Amino acid sequence: MLQELILLCLAAFAAGFIDAIVGGGGLLQTPATLLILPHYPVASIFGTVKIPSLFGTSVAAFKYAKQVKFNYKVLIACVIAAFCASLLGAYSVSMINNAVIKPVILIVLILVAIYTYFNKQFGIHQHKEHSVKKQVLLAAFFGLIIGFYDGLIGPGTGSFLILVFIAVLGFDFIHASAHAKVVNIATNLAAIIYFSSTGHILYQYAIPMAIFNIIGSYFGAKLALLKGNKFVRIFFLIVIFGTILRFAWDVLVNKI
């Protein structure tokens, strides 16, 4: 058990670090936990990794909040929608076939990577001609979609949130990351409420992982704020590429 715990904590640290910068920490943490604890049900793994994700994301959000100004109307709309949708997604885990969803996500990710690479202005603040009402409605709409995805599948949620805040609402990478962290707190919390109510959280692993995820998140957020948008853009591309490889493996090799 000690060896398993050490490996899980290392994975949680790395996931927290990545997640604080551009999201996508679950792409490392979830499969690593599945590999290290193969004798537990998948639902228990999903529930367990939500605990370190919640705490790590909370630390990153607090770190960003001290230096980034939030758009609270947009944020609140997205948080409420994402929270409710994440609960529904967690409930739907056993009813929807991931094999149908993942190929679609894979195609979207490839398009995102191509667009981000060739559009050098992507992630630099761009004014969008949206009224406040339209901004709030768009935030709520995408909060529903991504929140449901997080409850259902999970990995990559932070990156999808950042993408929406940049491409749809015109935020820069730093502000998008900050807002995404707060929304991700809501989706993680919703999933934890469901999984804990069904007894699918392994607290003996979740608590130590949470501590290391917090440490990783602290340093990740600090580095992102220090280096700025250019650094975060490069990191975003790296994580998106890793996400593509992960989903391609699931779709083409594992056929999950």
Automatic annotation (TrEMBL):
Entry keyword Transmembrane helix: yes
A matching Pfam family: TauE
Domain of life where this protein originates: Bacteria
Cellular compartments annotated: Cell membrane
Residue stretches spanning the membrane: 44-62, 74-93, 99-118, 138-171, 191-219, 231-249
Membrane topology type: Multi-pass membrane protein
InterPro entries xref list: TM_pro_TauE-like, TSUP
Signal peptide: none
Chief subcellular location: membrane
Keywords, in A-Z order: Cell membrane, Membrane, Transmembrane, Transmembrane helix, Transport
GO cellular component: plasma membrane
Family, as annotated: Belongs to the 4-toluene sulfonate uptake permease (TSUP) (TC 2.A.102) family.
Protein name: Probable membrane transporter protein
Species classification: Bacteria, Pseudomonadati, Bacteroidota, Sphingobacteriia, Sphingobacteriales
